[in-house]
Amino acid sequence: MAIGLPHEINPDEANWRGKTAWLYGGFAFVGLVWAYFRLPETKGRTYKELDILFHLKVPTNKFKTQEVEVAIGLAQNEVGPTDVADKIDKSAAGDSEERRV
């Protein structure tokens, strides 16, 4: 940007003048579209819930509606989010491993 912008504005070179904004506006628009489709909605979610959603590879457009069990009979500070996500994976797979409280 520091190298290209003076060449774009300079009347002896590209001579884009005010049209230079269209180039950077295009980059901003592409970034906005990417952010809309790829960044998840995190409003109202705890860090543990987000860790579980990422661990379970839930698509980012489903983050807003996906139900998450944060603690399965465990105190909130006893296990980390990956431990809880592993327990969810095992229970979803039909594994009859005993849960420790």
Structural notes for this entry:
Keywords: Membrane, Transmembrane, Transmembrane helix. The protein has 101 residues and is mainly α. The chain has two domains: 35 residues; 46 residues, no CATH class. The protein is 46% helix and 0% strand. Helix 3 crosses helix 4. The radius of gyration is 24 Å and the shape is rod-shaped. The C terminus is likely disordered.
List keywords for this structure.
single chain; 101 residues; mainly alpha; 4 helices; 46% helix; rod-shaped; transmembrane helix; transmembrane; membrane; MFS_trans_sf
Write the layout of secondary structure elements.
Layout: H1 4-9, H2 20-38, H3 47-55, H4 81-92
Helix pairs in contact: 3-4
Low-confidence region ranges: 73-79, 95-101
Count of the domains = 2
CA-based gyration radius = 24 Å
Distinct helical segment count: 4
Summarize this, please?
This protein has helices at residues 4-9, 20-38, 47-55, 81-92. It is mainly α and 101 residues long. The protein has two domains: 4-38; 47-92, no CATH class.
